[in-house]
Known about the structure:
Elements: E1 5-13, H1 18-22, E2 29-36, H2 48-51, H3 56-70, H4 75-78, E3 82-91, H5 96-117, E4 130-138, E5 141-144, H6 148-153, E6 156-163, E7 168-175, H7 182-212
Parallel strand pairs: 2-3
Antiparallel strand pairs: 1-3, 4-5, 4-6, 6-7
Amino acid sequence: MGNTRVICGVMIEEIIPRWMKEQSVTGGWLTAEYSMLPYSTTTRKPRDIMKGRLDGRSTEIQRLIGRSLRAVVDLEKLGPRTMWVDCDVLQADGGTRTAAITGASLAVALACRKLAKDKKVDAPPIRKLVAAVSAGILDGSAIVDLNYEEDKAVTVDFNLVATEDGDFVEVQGSGEESTFSQAELDHMLTLAGKGIADLIAAQRAMLARIMVSPPET
């Protein structure tokens, strides 16, 4: 998305987390991990492993990615297995969390298709696609899909996660030492909604091309 590049991969293990067994929870689980590679930013970002812990921002983002995808995956149909979603930022120019969600949605759709193709499930357990986009208020005007310089300058920071039929999964918005009006919020929602629709269309086009020329497995 723009100059932001995130590689998203999905792997599936035929196990479920211990807490699901202990609590007799049926179905499967989906979880996400997110990281920014050291060279993804203008100044080197130390690896989390060197600090001995995951930083708060990365923890927040990977939880957001997991929530966003669990909202559109039928965990009962997934069966007793765990779907791991890995999102690694190769290049960061704003909107890494939204790019990660949008890319991961496509990766999960492909993984679900493969499960069905391999006859491990009756039908792909993904119910619908999901995408995310950033918005904000810059110099009094609403903008969408912020790059790094815009993200630093906006007075309102906003992220929208929504499904292909327009249902909201998560809305994040805050004033950066500022407030925002109902009209500004409505404008950001409108722009972000259009952005989501464009991203879903791009996902659909990619899935259609893969169906015609499936990748080697």
